[in-house]
């Protein structure tokens, strides 16, 4: 046994090409998965922290009931190691030398913002700068438009309630300046400690207290668990992922990264499986010899198991050695893209999938064929036995499939992803079976001749078993790579479509009915036509089917929409990005009914025909639900929960109008003219929010491209592993063909053609299966619609044909450069 | 002049002062030294020598599978060392047949497909009938669709012989054709080789260490340490 071990030493192992391929595959598997997992975790942390700045914290707690939260809630958060901050938002009149103006006040504590920075200007012509805290007590920062509206200068004093504050800066952008229609008036920012002295907040005032929390995920989650039972309906706990415009983009990016990681696992597994099977085949003679020398089956099993463990260790260590510099490079790339340093942080949790991948690849893919070496008969020494049939390999295949999909499931946590990939794979194998049958049926009629085409076709037919299994691996590899490319392009297209360069970036609010035409003409003249203008009536939903809504809807289901006034509108045509999912849109001339937004309807348990009563001022309006529709909240256009027909229940109610439009940066000065001409109309500038979202999209896109490149490299390695598995046979055949009089050029052409055909077929199969998988995935994960992606469908088979033809040529090179005599001897 | 041309037509293989060296890391090894010989059409010739004597290398050079360091090989009127690799391939495809010690059948191909291979390379339109005919001739008419793995060693060598004769070669090179076979099978394979050779009028050049097999050939050469001698010729000279 000791002798046998010596015979199979690692050094000797390393000299074997197949072992080198298994080890390379393992190293690549571990490296790819580790890099992706590390980078995905890093990216997520980076994204969350840059997205967190939209909240100016990691989490916000909003109290919309006008009361502060109990002090112990904050003490509890601090005792859990969380940073906290506080802000108060309310509207009030302010007085300057030039008059008075309704403003929206944001009073912030010293800690604000916990995440992100505030953009300010010291004077109207001073450069913009980023600062990490709000105004000091006694100071106020104001929206630049107030300078003119109130004829103020920097250093002047502004009267806020009972308090005079010195204007010390211009507020350009708040890190949490999310889009809220409630913030209609120009913004001023003061210190929270100044609020009591203003005397503005009285019992019953409309005021919103917002508390900021930041810290690690575990502490935040733990705190939320503690807090949950204490929250009242008017409290709203907001995380990055709740309701913000970009959150869907973030989730999709995460899904994509996980998908990428999962595909890397699959690819790596395929590479390990191919190489180890080849290794097992090459070991049969050695095993037979060992058995002849007296080693028992159990001994053989142990021997190979030990060796497998050694490979696993080499794979893990080698893989990590490759992954770490690669990850370092990616973080450099990321920090270049973000234009800020990104720390190089090795998340131990992110390394676990890599180790698991190595173990599973090894034991589900490499072990089965190697385990069967125990059964190699000693008789093989005397007489070569028939090779492994497909039947023996079937249970291996089943184990491998279960293992790898289990791994993907564990990794991506999405059963639908596993199902989609598995579905694509089944389709692929079915198509492959059919193609195999067709290949046999049609190509058997082709007879070889001196012509490269015929020789290539004959070659395909003759090697049909090897060709089909190679095609299966290529097609699967291509399917996985193409799936990723397709998902990537649909993801990016979606983002681009969601935020086209001319997406509306300004809102006009509070337009008086008689100013509607004039406002429209103002912007028309300046070449910036407005989108549709909508009337807006503010009202509360108070009754549902005649019962007070607070009784009719259970406490758990109460949503913010019930606690605040809703923006109601009337419209004759359905906005293009809305979609009716139940009932019917208003007929022309219809005066009754209301259309409700789908998510709200679901949360309140509303259905068609339910009667809703709204209180608008002192009036009550009751209408039945005639349709339920979906709304694109992130469309940057005015969106409404409730829509009435023109001439319907809202017509006589006091309304102001709202619209949105696109204004390029170089035309922003037009806003000054506009404000002068229409001082009562509020302009909501959301161009910076759009910039932020686009910046995030760009970051994620870069990351996705980097990961895609990694996966494509892994795919290429798998293909190389598969091609090199038949290297010896191919070279022997090449040498023999040359001996028998085959010209070099004929050999080269026919081999390249044969591989090109193989690659072409595999490409077509892979792409079709990928389209199917993507179609299934998009339904669940990415919410897109199915369409053929010609930009991928056409080039993939072509590229795969060319790449494989080159692989084929590469295989042949030793056959061409050495005398056939020498090669035949060497390969004997 | 006429006589000279007639003689040229008679000569199938003419080797003049053939030397072959291979470079090793430290020095150069001479494998063949000053080999000269002439083989006429239809002759059967055995080259006998021990392992490592250089006989297989000589066979490769004679068949144009490799080029010599010095000297010339003229095969059926063509000087091999002056031909390009593709021209040599063309020559092999049309005029040369091979039988190897380890059969060199392609494992993925059936017996029939293996025999069809040289016919296809030569661009023959319907090689199947010829392959079937030859396999029947070597007694494997029932095993056309068997792959090499399903055939015994003797059967595999029969397939190889059928393949060697498939393209009607003018000269056949055999490298230890019975080396991997037991006595009895070896005997029947060599019988078949001799028979077919006679039937087709092919020139046979066989490398072997088996004296009995060599004795069945018309002429014998001995090779030792890269030097070729023809014992009978030497005896005649002595006589």
Q: Count interface residues per chain for the largest interface.
A: A-B, 36 and 42 residues
The CA-CA distance between the termini of chain B, in Å, is: 30 Å
In DSSP terms (H or I, runs of 4 or more residues), the helix count of chain A works out at 25
Task: Give average pLDDT of chain A, whole number.
Answer: 78
CATH H-tier superfamily of chain B: P-loop containing nucleotide triphosphate hydrolases
Identify the CATH class of chain B: Alpha Beta
GO molecular function, one term (chain B): ATP binding
Keywords (chain B): ATP-binding, Nucleotide-binding, Transport
Domain ABC transporter (chain B): 13-239
Family (chain B): Belongs to the ABC transporter superfamily.
Protein architecture, described:
The complex is a heterodimer of chains A (828) and B (239). Chain A has 828 residues and is an alpha+beta fold. Chain A has 3 domains: 56-239, no CATH class; 421-500 and 689-828, no CATH class; 506-685, no CATH class. Chain A is built from 25 helices and 22 strands. Chain A has a 6-stranded mixed barrel. In chain A, strand 2 and strand 3 form a beta hairpin. In chain A, helix 10 packs antiparallel against helix 11 (390-412), helix 11 packs antiparallel against helix 12 and helix 21 (727-739) crosses helix 24. The longest helix of chain A has 46 residues, at 247-292. Chain A is elongated. With 239 residues, chain B is of the alpha/beta class. Chain B has a single domain, classed as Rossmann fold, CATH 3.40.50. In chain B, 40% of the residues lie in helices and 26% in strands. Chain B has a 6-stranded mixed sheet with strand order 6-7-8-3-9-10. In chain B, a hairpin with a 2-residue loop joins strand 4 and strand 5. In chain B, helix 4 crosses helix 5 (127-137) and helix 6 (153-166) packs parallel to helix 7 (183-200). Chain B starts with a helix and ends with a helix. Chain A binds chain B through residues 384, 386-387, 447-451, 454-455, 458, 462-463, 465-466, 729, 732-733, 736-746, 819-822, 824-825, 828, and chain B through 56-57, 60, 63, 65-67, 85-86, 89-94, 96, 98, 100, 102, 104, 106-109, 113, 116-128, 149-150, 163, 167. Chain B: InterPro entries: AAA+_ATPase, ABC_transporter-like_ATP-bd, ABC_transporter-like_CS, ABC_transpr_LolD-like, MacB-like_ATP-bd, P-loop_NTPase. Chain B: Keywords: ATP-binding, Nucleotide-binding, Transport. Chain B: Belongs to the ABC transporter superfamily.
């Amino acid at each position: 046994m000791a002798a046998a071990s010596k015979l199979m030493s690692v050094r000797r192992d390393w000299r074997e090409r197949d072992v080198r391929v298994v080890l390379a595959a393992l190293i690549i598997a571990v490296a790819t998965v580790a890099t992706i997992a590390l980078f995905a975790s890093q990216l997520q942390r980076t994204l969350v922290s840059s997205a967190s700045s939209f909240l100016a914290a990691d989490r916000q707690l909003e109290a919309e009931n006008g009361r502060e939260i109990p002090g112990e809630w904050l003490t509890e958060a601090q005792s859990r190691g969380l940073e906290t901050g506080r802000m108060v938002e309310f509207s009030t009149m302010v007085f300057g030398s030039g008059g008075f103006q309704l403003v929206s006040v944001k009073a912030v504590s010293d800690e604000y913002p916990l995440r992100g920075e505030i953009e300010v200007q010291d004077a109207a012509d001073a450069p913009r700068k980023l600062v990490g805290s709000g105004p000091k007590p006694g100071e106020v920062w104001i929206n630049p438009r107030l300078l003119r509206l109130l004829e103020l200068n920097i250093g002047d004093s502004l009267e806020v309630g009972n308090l005079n504050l010195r204007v010390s800066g211009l507020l350009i952008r708040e890190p949490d300046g999310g889009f809220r229609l409630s913030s209609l008036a120009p913004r001023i920012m003061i210190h929270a400690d100044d609020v009591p002295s203003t005397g503005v907040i009285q019992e019953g005032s409309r005021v919103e207290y917002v508390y900021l929390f930041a810290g690690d995920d575990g502490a935040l989650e733990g705190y939320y668990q503690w807090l949950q039972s204490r929250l009242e309906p008017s409290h709203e706990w907001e995380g990055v992922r709740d309701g913000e415009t970009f959150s869907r983009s973030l989730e999709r990016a995460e899904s994509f990264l996980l998908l990428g990681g999962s595909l890397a696992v699959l690819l790596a597994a395929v590479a390990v499986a191919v190489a180890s099977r080849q290794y097992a085949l090459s070991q049969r003679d050695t095993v037979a010899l060992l058995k002849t020398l007296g080693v028992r089956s159990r001994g053989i099993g142990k021997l190979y198991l030990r060796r497998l463990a050694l490979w696993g260790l080499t794979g893990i260590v080698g893989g990590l050695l490759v992954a770490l510099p690669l990850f370092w490079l990616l973080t450099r790339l990321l920090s270049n893209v973000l234009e800020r340093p990104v720390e190089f942080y090795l998340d131990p949790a992110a390394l676990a999938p890599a180790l698991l991948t190595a173990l599973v690849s090894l034991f589900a893919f490499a072990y089965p064929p190697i385990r069967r070496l125990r059964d190699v008969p000693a008789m093989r020494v005397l007489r070569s036995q028939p090779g492994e049939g497909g039947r023996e390999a079937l249970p291996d295949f089943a184990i491998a499939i279960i293992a790898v999909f289990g791994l993907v499931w564990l990794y991506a946590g999405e059963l639908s992803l596993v199902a989609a990939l598995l579905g694509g794979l089944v389709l692929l194998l079915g198509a492959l079976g059919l193609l195999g049958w067709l290949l046999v049926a049609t190509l058997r009629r082709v007879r070889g001749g001196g012509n490269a085409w015929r020789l290539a076709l004959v070659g395909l037919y003759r090697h049909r078993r090897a060709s089909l299994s190679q095609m299966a691996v290529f097609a699967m590899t291509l399917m996985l790579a193409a799936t990723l490319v397709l998902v990537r392009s649909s993801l990016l297209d979606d983002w681009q479509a969601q935020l086209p360069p001319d997406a509306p970036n300004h809102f006009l609010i509070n337009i008086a009915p008689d100013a509607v035409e004039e406002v429209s003409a103002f912007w028309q003249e300046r070449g910036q036509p407005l989108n549709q203008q909508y009337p807006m009536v503010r009202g509360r939903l108070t009754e549902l089917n005649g019962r007070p809504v607070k009784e009719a809807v259970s406490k758990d289901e109460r949503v913010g929409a019930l606690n605040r006034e809703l923006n109601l509108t009337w419209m004759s045509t359905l906005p293009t990005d809305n979609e009716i999912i139940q009932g019917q849109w208003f007929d022309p001339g219809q005066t009754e009914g209301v259309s409700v937004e789908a998510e709200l309807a679901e949360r309140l348990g509303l259905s068609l025909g339910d009667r809703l009563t709204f209180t608008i001022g002192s009036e009550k309006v009751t209408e039945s639900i005639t349709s339920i529709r979906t709304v694109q909240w992130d469309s940057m256009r005015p969106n409404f929960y409730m829509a009435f027909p023109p001439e319907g229940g809202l017509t006589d109610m006091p309304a102001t109008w709202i619209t949105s439009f696109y204004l390029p940066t170089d035309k922003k000065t037009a806003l000054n003219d506009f404000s002068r001409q229409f001082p009562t109309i509020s302009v909501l500038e959301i161009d910076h929010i759009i910039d932020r979202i686009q910046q995030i999209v760009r970051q994620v896109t870069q990351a996705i491209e980097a990961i895609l490149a990694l996966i494509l490299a892994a795919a290429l390695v798998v293909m190389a592993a598969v091609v090199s598995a038949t290297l010896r046979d191919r070279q022997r055949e090449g040498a023999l063909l040359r001996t028998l009089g085959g010209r070099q050029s004929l050999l080269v052409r026919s081999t390249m053609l044969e591989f090109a055909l193989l690659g072409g077929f595999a490409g077509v199969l892979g792409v079709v299966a990928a389209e199917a998988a993507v179609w299934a995935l998009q339904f669940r994960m990415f919410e897109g619609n199915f369409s053929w992606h010609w930009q991928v469908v056409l080039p993939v088979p072509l590229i795969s044909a060319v790449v494989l033809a080159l692989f084929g040529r590469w295989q042949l090179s030793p056959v061409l450069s050495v005398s056939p005599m020498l090669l035949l001897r060497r390969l004997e | 002049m006429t006589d000279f041309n007639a003689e040229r037509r008679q000569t199938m293989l003419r080797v003049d002062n053939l030397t072959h060296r291979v470079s090793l890391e430290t020095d150069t090894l001479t494998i063949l030294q000053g080999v000269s010989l002439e083989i006429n059409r239809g002759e059967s010739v055995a080259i006998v020598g021990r392992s490592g004597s250089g006989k297989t290398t000589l066979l490769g050079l004679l068949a144009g599978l490799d080029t010599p360091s010095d000297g010339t090989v003229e095969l059926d009127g063509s000087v091999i060392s002056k031909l390009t690799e593709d021209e040599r391939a063309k020559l092999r495809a049309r005029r040369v047949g091979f039988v190897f010690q380890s059969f060199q059948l392609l494992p993925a191909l059936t017996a029939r497909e293996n025999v069809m291979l040289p016919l296809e390379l030569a661009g023959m339109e319907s090689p199947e009938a010829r392959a079937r005919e030859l396999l029947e001739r070597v007694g494997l008419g029932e095993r056309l669709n068997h792959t090499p793995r399903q055939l015994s060693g003797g059967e595999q060598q029969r397939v190889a012989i059928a393949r060697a004769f498939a393209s009607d070669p003018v000269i056949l090179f055999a490298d230890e054709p019975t080396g991997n076979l037991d006595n009895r099978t070896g005997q029947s394979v060599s019988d078949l080789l001799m028979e077919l050779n006679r039937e087709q009028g092919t020139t046979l050049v066989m490398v072997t260490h088996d004296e009995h097999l060599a004795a069945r050939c018309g002429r014998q050469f001995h090779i030792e340490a890269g030097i070729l001698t023809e014992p009978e010729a030497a005896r005649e000279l002595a006589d």
